[in-house]
Amino acid sequence: MSKKSLGTDKKSVYALLAAVFAVSLSACTDTTVQERNLSAVVAYYLEQKYPEYSYRFVDLNNDAVDDAIVFLQGSSWCGPDGCTMLVLQGEGEGFKVVSKVSEVLAPVRVAESQSHAWRDIIVHSNDEEKLLQFDGSDYPPKAAEQPTAPTESLGSAAIIVQ
Questions:
Q1: What is the pLDDT of residue 124?
Q2: Fewer CB in a 10 Å sphere around the end CB: N or C, the chain?
């Protein structure tokens, strides 16, 4: 069955797949439901069975639900200018992909500052610390094209991926 023939939007498909994978994996591992749901959504979104990534749960939009920053790894997602990072919004125990950002190198930081009620993200790209600001619908797709993060933001930003 193709994704289009499901007759629903991607968000609903992600939530359904996360629930199915969570139930099927619950006896196989000590990971939390939240981690299993994240893994299912990332695998589905990337169309890879076992993608390599590191992640961190953090509430980016102050809704008291963990969101996730996923730093993809491996030759499919990393090149000479950096790797791809996903930002996922938490929805209960599930997630939906909000942004896909390329040309990202560690460290990844979450700033105290906000844009459109979402916390700013600071990443290393193009030999500088770049400021990623939410525009009301997503974060920018290319880190290297973003402004340099203000020095005062770096000191108070929490490093979440090293």
A1: 97
A2: N
